[in-house]
Design brief:
Number of helices: 10
Order of helices and strands: EHEHEHEHEHHHHHH
Structural class: alpha/beta
Helix content: 40-55%
Strand order of the largest sheet: 2-1-3-4-5
Number of strands: 5
Strand content: 5-15%
Oligomer: single chain
Length: 236
Amino acid sequence: MLGTTALAGSSALPPLPRLPMSNVADNMERPLVLIVDDDEDVRSALEELLLSVGIDARCFGSTQELLHADLPERPGCLILDVRMPGASGLDLQQHLASNGNTRPIIFLTGHGDIAMTVQAMKAGAVDFLTKPVRDQTLLDAVTTGIEKDIAQRTAARLVKQHVDRYAKLTPREREVLREVAKGRLNKQIAFDLGISEITVKLHRGNVTKKMQATSIGQLIRIWELLPAEIRGERSP
């Protein structure tokens, strides 16, 4: 327990559940929580709590220490203090977002206020907790963060698969896919591209096979999952 330093434990609470690991293929898929706090006692207590329920953790005393660390590509989340020497937790959140790092963040601080909470949550934080906090409250937030990161990583892998398959299409097949996604009929596509309707059907069949779609509806859903730059849309 962390007492009043960061967590407020309770003897009335039931034993803390261990995070299920039955679907974890290997160590690289085991969740890893990154803790950033300038208070060594808080870091140690948080790490001990997470390890007690089967969650791996690594601790850092500052945002710079984290940014310079060689971290494995494992699912997980961040637990950040807000006010620390150097860059703050909010600064780190902004830095990660600007670099495309969407790892979920939980703020745990003894110096929070409404403005900080609003800023953190608007930027996508999982939760903004103030010290002391109950063990179970923190673990619930961590579980939510880990589940969110696993879902994001699964979605990203799926998109990459679609992009890799799209890269194998010929220029003409890409044109046909684009038109199919617009809901245009074979004869309309044939007229616009200056090819026969039979050729359109042939290309559409090849596209469906290469993109591993089982129907036109699924093919359109795959198209919608492709990055905007591939679909020729401008980012807002």
